[in-house]
Amino acid sequence: MRVVGRVLLAMAAAVSSPFLGAGAGTSHAGLDNELSLVDGQDRTLTVQQWDT
């Protein structure tokens, strides 16, 4: 019975670890810079630079 309990505990830890540690190594992007350019025909080109 001890072996079965240990196996169940190990399986529960293996299943829950990706959900609990999901925020540990992830990056979040933030807008660093945005430039707009208008040509002679009133068309606008917007360039965004994101930091990760």
Fold and architecture overview:
The structure is a single chain. Strand 1 and strand 2 form a beta hairpin. 37% of the residues lie in helices and 33% in strands. Strands 1-2 form a two-stranded antiparallel ribbon. With 52 residues, it is α+β, with helices and mostly antiparallel strands. The mean pLDDT is 77. 0% of the residues are buried. Residues 1-22 form the signal peptide. This is Porin. Keywords: Signal.
Write a compact overview of the structure shown:
This protein is an alpha+beta fold and 52 residues long.
Name the average pLDDT. 77
Helix content: 25-40%
| Oligomeric assembly | single chain
Cα radius of gyration in angstroms = 25 Å
What topology does this entry show?
Blueprint: H1 2-20, E1 30-38, E2 44-51
Antiparallel strand pairs: 1-2
Features:
alpha+beta; two-stranded antiparallel sheet; 1 helix; 52 residues; 2 strands; signal
